[in-house]
């Protein structure tokens, strides 16, 4: 679901996000004077929307907005003692909402994955199972369920508004799993925290970590450029293009090791190199039971659980061996995202491909059938898509015009569109409340049009970044 990502992964930067902070006309361009906004919607039982309460939002609600400069603070939420700097995944201070204790830990993270959106390698957003984050200029903010220590704030207390993770700085990117969190710094170091029972933290133990703990013990751990997190497993890519995975396997092969490494009853609690993957990789995505990697040339590889065709190979056989997806060997892919039992990929020319389980309409193929191999989402074929995300059983896409489309499971209002059925089989346009206040000091209000630049999808909630004109 979230996790998912995340994940927006790109071996060769796509036209839109490559230029997010430039003046180019390609895609959705941002500049230093633009006001950026963080929106959230869907289920909110443990504060994962960051709005200070537990109320479900059927349509996107504004969490915060700010100008894209280094001194800006959010202007549309009540600021107490802590300012927030923001640009996409995790970043805000504690805005003074009531936090609630919840020390229960879910028994399984099976349907979660890490969904993350990065903007110009400087900021981003990510969704986990029941927690969220944003980061900017090296700082990280988290909110939502705190069980297992997944917020990294030194306790298992839940937070209902974005809260600064002051113990971690110089952050480049964050990935959120079902019960754990992962961060990589600009210097290439990896930190993990949260529930350790599945080995997903990579420290060689199964204890929870209430605060970020650095991975140590291997030379490559200070040379990481990209990370991903699934419900119970984690992946990292080094600057040389090597892929390392660790966490829970359960016999489906999602770690990509087979018998080449020894596990503890299906759990690998320290990182292991995926040696069967004999190509350099630039990006990785973790699903509920599978993993996918992109090469710098845009070739997509898959491995792991395949009970619902999520590997895209045309059959339902689990396979721990990484292999290129046959039908995509001549297609240049620039982004991949994995859900609970489905996946999506974005081509270099802006087309969306989906495959796997379709029982909730999450494939966008005008039906509820599953797809054995990647197929184009025809409803979006006349639009150039620049960003995609898979939730647990739903999917989202952002076009170069800044439009946000969602489809799939909607039982918890995760599609952000009031009035839809529980299973939306075609992409539907998400609308925003554009009556935002530009100048908080004067109270002047103007009609604004939100233009989305990135989206991430959790199990039952979503986040996006947008700017208004």
Describe the structure.
A hairpin with a 5-residue loop joins strand 18 and strand 19 (300-304). The chain has one helix at 15-18; strands at 6-7, 35-42, 57-67, 115-119, 123-127, 131-136, 139-144, 159-164, 171-176, 180-185, 190-194, 209-214, 224-229, 233-238, 243-248, 267-273, 283-286, 290-294, 300-304, 319-324, 333-338, 342-347, 352-356, 371-376, 385-390, 394-399, 404-409, 423-429, 435-439, 444-447, 450-457, 461-468. The strands form 8 sheets. Strands 1-4-5-6-7-8 form a 6-stranded mixed sheet, with no helix packed on it. It has a 4-stranded antiparallel sheet with strand order 3-2-32-31, with no helix packed on it. The chain has a 4-stranded antiparallel sheet with strand order 9-10-11-12, with no helix packed on it. It has one domain: Methylamine Dehydrogenase, Chain H (7 Propeller). It starts with 5 loop residues before the first strand and ends with a strand. It has 469 residues and is mainly β. Helices cover 1% and strands 41% of the residues.
């Amino acid at each position: 679901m979230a996790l998912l990502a995340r994940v927006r992964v790109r071996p060769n930067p796509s036209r839109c996000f490559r230029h997010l902070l430039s003046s180019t006309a390609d895609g959705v361009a941002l500049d230093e004077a633009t006001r950026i906004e963080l929106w959230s919607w869907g289920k909110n039982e443990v504060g994962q929307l960051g709005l200070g309460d537990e109320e479900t939002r059927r349509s996107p609600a504004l969490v915060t907005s700010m100008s894209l400069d280094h001194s800006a603070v959010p202007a549309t939420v009540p600021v107490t003692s802590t300012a927030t700097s923001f640009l996409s995944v995790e970043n805000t201070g504690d805005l003074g909402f009531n936090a609630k204790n919840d020390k229960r830990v879910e028994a399984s993270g099976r349907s979660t994955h890490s969904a993350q959106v990065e903007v110009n390698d400087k900021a981003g957003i990510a969704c986990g199972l029941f927690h969220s984050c944003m980061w900017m200029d090296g700082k990280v903010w988290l909110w939502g369920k705190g069980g297992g220590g997944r917020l990294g704030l030194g306790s298992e207390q839940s937070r209902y508004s974005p809260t600064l993770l002051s113990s971690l700085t110089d952050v480049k990117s964050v990935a959120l799993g079902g019960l754990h969190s992962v961060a990589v710094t600009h210097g290439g170091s990896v930190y993990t925290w949260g529930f350790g029972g599945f080995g997903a933290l990579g420290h060689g133990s199964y204890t929870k970590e209430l605060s970020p703990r650095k991975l140590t013990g291997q030379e490559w751990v200070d040379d990481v450029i990209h990370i991903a997190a699934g419900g119970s497993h984690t992946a990292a890519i080094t600057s040389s293009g090597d892929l390392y995975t660790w966490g829970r396997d359960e016999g489906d092969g999602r770690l990509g090791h087979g018998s080449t490494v020894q596990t503890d009853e299906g759990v690998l609690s320290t990182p292991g190199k995926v040696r069967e993957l004999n190509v350099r990789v630039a990006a990785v995505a973790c699903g509920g039971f599978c993993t996918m990697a992109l090469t710098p040339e845009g070739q997509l590889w898959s491995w792991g659980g395949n009970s619902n065709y999520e590997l895209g190979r045309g059959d339902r056989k689990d396979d721990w061996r990484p292999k290129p997806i046959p039908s995509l060997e001549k297609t240049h892919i620039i982004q991949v995202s994995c859900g609970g039992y489905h996946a999506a990929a974005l081509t270099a020319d802006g087309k969306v491909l989906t495959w796997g389980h379709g029982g909730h309409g999450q494939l966008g193929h005008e039906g509820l059938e599953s797809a054995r191999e990647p197929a184009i989402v025809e409803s979006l074929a006349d639009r150039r898509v620049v960003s995609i995300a898979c939730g647990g059983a739903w999917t989202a896409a952002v076009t170069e015009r800044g439009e946000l489309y969602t489809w799939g499971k909607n039982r918890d209002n995760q599609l952000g569109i009031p009035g839809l059925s529980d299973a939306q089989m075609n992409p539907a346009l998400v609308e925003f409340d554009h009556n935002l206040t530009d100048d908080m000091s004067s109270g002047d209000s103007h009609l604004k049009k939100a233009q989305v630049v990135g989206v991430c999808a959790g199990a039952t909630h979503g986040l996006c970044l947008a700017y208004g004109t």
